[in-house]
Design a protein that fits this description.
single chain; alpha+beta
């Protein structure tokens, strides 16, 4: 009986630590500039879908001074070009650059570490994990991860 309790406790601790390990791996991929490694942690269709929902819902349609050139183009052309605008704009390179810029904005360093910019990271539910880069209410960037096929993947970047 005692062994069973220890096994359950170990499994619970392992589950809680699991997304943090994936955040560490994302940090390594960003730091090394390894696009191949980073791509395995990105769910681009989900990121595109979430951006489209925000843009169509009127959220985020106001000009944002932190917009990259691609996001400004996307805002202007989403209705006219539809999903192809999302596919052209939200790419693995866009995700890499957005995450690096968000970390740089928070850490004020030229070679920022993604993990060094994290001010909050915890579960929203058993299969959703939220990361905040920067202080709440100060133009923080939120990165949402979802558990998919036994891997935590980035499903949304809210800048």
């Amino acid at each position: 009986m005692r062994l069973l309790r220890y096994l359950i406790l170990f499994a619970l601790v392992a589950f809680v630590v699991w997304p943090y390990y994936h955040v560490f791996r994302i940090d390594n991929a960003l730091g090394k500039g390894d696009m191949r490694a980073l791509e395995q942690f990105l769910d681009l269709p989900a990121i595109r879908r979430n951006h489209k929902e925000r843009l169509e819902g009127g959220l985020g349609l106001r000009p944002d001074p932190r917009d990259t050139e691609g996001m400004a183009w996307l805002r202007q052309n989403l209705q006219r070009l539809g999903d192809s605008a999302l596919e052209q704009t939200i790419t693995p390179e866009w995700a890499r650059d957005t995450l690096r810029k968000a970390a740089a904005d928070v850490t004020d360093k030229q070679a920022p570490y993604f993990m060094g910019a994290i001010t909050f990271a915890f579960f929203e539910s058993y299969d959703r994990f939220l990361i905040r880069l920067g202080e709440l209410g100060q133009n923080a960037t939120h990165v949402r991860m979802g558990l998919q096929d036994w891997t935590w993947r980035v499903t949304d970047i809210i800048r």
